[in-house]
Amino acid sequence: MGITSYAKFSLYKNAVFSLTLPLQKEEIVAKKFLLEQSPDAKLSIYYAPVEYINDDAAILIVGITPGFHQMQKAYTKAIQLKVEGLNNETILHQAKLASSYQGTMRKNLIQMLDELSLPDYLGLASAAELFGDANHLLHTTGLIPYPVFYKNKNYTGSTPDLLANNILSRYVMECFVNDAARLKKPVIIPLGVTVAKVLSHLAAKSLFDDTYLLTGFPHPSGANGHRHRQFALNKERMRKKLAVYFS
């Protein structure tokens, strides 16, 4: 299990637990949970209870940032757990597990990981177990670990440019780079071209170890119409890299 102070959750815990279910968007995409905003107010970063870190993970899956759906799932799970008297780490672990790549995205992700034979190396029947009993093997995060919105819509990583924007690049450095440095050289699965490019950029500056980065892994969103072709083109190379890692 990860060991961290979870300072942000401690700061926002009472506000999170004051909410009632079901949640409305304006209750969590709200000023009281606003972490950062650009001067023109187009770009906003909000708190969500997703900061659990699994230091012992063998697999690291990296996206851009949690979207609103993930944000809502994390809040909902944390609120459901408030009456159980659990410690902050357990609440955050369960909130992250409940919100990580839900629905079609998780289904597509599991299918691709199974095709790469990843479960065989981990002693699992399917990668689906990474989101269940074998969750201790997995850490999921975003380059910006908290939800980001641009013009009130989920930020996709393109506009504004993630590394060129001062706010976003600072969050990458202060949150993602520091958190990733705690892990013990896991296999790194970047969800999509943008994430892979940012990780390679960080590695070129000696800020991130990309030795076991599975470049070519497509974003599992159902809206990504190129994912099947991209996966097919890179499948064998990724399988070989996994074989090297687990040897």
Give an account of the 3D structure:
The chain is of the alpha/beta class and 247 residues long. The protein has a single domain (7-246), classed as Uracil-DNA Glycosylase, subunit E, CATH 3.40.470. It is 42% helix and 11% strand. It contains 9 helices and 7 strands, in the order H-H-E-E-E-H-H-H-H-E-E-E-H-E-H-H. The chain has helices at residues 7-17, 25-28, 68-80, 88-99, 104-115, 118-122, 166-180, 193-204, 227-246; strands spanning 34-37, 43-46, 59-63, 138-142, 148-150, 153-154, 187-190. Strands 1-2-5-6 form a 4-stranded antiparallel β-sheet, with no helix packed on it. Strands 4-3-7 form a 3-stranded parallel β-sheet. The two termini are 25 Å apart. The model has no long low-confidence stretch (mean pLDDT 94). This is Uracil-DNA glycosylase-like domain-containing protein. It comes from Lentibacillus populi.
Short key terms for the protein model shown above:
247 residues; alpha/beta; Uracil-DNA Glycosylase, subunit E; four-stranded antiparallel β-sheet; three-stranded parallel β-sheet; 9 helices; 7 strands
The CATH topology turns out to be Uracil-DNA Glycosylase, subunit E
Distance between the termini: 25 Å
Radius of gyration: 17 Å
Number of distinct helices = 9
Q: Which residues form runs of ≥5 with pLDDT under 50?
A: none
Architecture (CATH level 2) name: 3-Layer(aba) Sandwich
Shape: globular
Order of helices and strands: HHEEEHHHHEEEHEHH
Secondary structure class reads alpha/beta
- Sheet with most strands: strand arrangement: 1-2-5-6
Largest sheet: 4 strands, antiparallel
Query: Roughly how much helix do the residues carry, as a percent range?
Result: 40-55%
* Name of the level-1 CATH class: Alpha Beta
Q: What is the count of structural domains?
A: 1
Protein name: Uracil-DNA glycosylase-like domain-containing protein
Organism: Lentibacillus populi
